[in-house]
């Protein structure tokens, strides 16, 4: 995949989950710490999932992921 920022080739990889789910939260709603568990956001990886495919650009340090449905 070509990076949409710099047009260089991106490297395919995965993001591994830990014991908690991984989600995206709008910056203005981020309360940090344990409170983020109760904040609505976009779940990227549930605690029981092991990995999420992603592409990484070494040139501009960006990671691109597809948001799960």
Describe the structure in your own words:
By secondary structure, the protein is mainly beta. The chain has one domain. The protein has no helices and 5 strands. It has strands at residues 11-16, 22-24, 42-45, 51-57, 62-65. The strands form 2 sheets. A 3-stranded antiparallel sheet has the order 1-4-5, with no helix packed on it. Strands 2-3 form a two-stranded antiparallel ribbon.
Compact description:
The protein is mainly beta and about 70 residues long.
Radius of gyration: 14 Å
Order of helices and strands: EEEEE
**Order of adjacent strands in the largest pleated sheet:** 1-4-5
CA-CA gap between termini: 21 Å
Describe the biggest sheet? Answer: 3 strands, antiparallel
Which percent bin holds the helix content? under 10%
What proportion of the residues form beta strands (DSSP E)? 25-35%
- Subunit arrangement of the protein: single chain
* Helix/sheet category: mainly beta
Q: What's the pLDDT, averaged over the residues?
A: 82
Shape: globular
Q: What is the number of independent domains?
A: 1
The total of helices stands at 0
Based on DSSP secondary structure assignment, what is the total number of beta strands? 5
Q: Which spans have pLDDT < 50 for at least 5 consecutive residues?
A: none
Question: Which helices and strands, and how do they pair?
Answer:
Elements: E1 11-16, E2 22-24, E3 42-45, E4 51-57, E5 62-65
Antiparallel strand pairs: 1-4, 2-3, 4-5
């Amino acid at each position: 995949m070509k990076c949409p920022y710099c047009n260089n080739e991106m490297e395919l990889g995965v993001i591994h989950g830990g014991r908690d789910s991984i989600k995206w939260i709008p910056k203005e709603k981020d309360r940090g710490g344990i409170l983020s568990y109760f904040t609505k956001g976009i779940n990227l990886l549930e605690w029981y999932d092991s990995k999420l495919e992603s592409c990484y650009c070494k040139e501009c340090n960006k990671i691109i992921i597809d948001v799960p449905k």
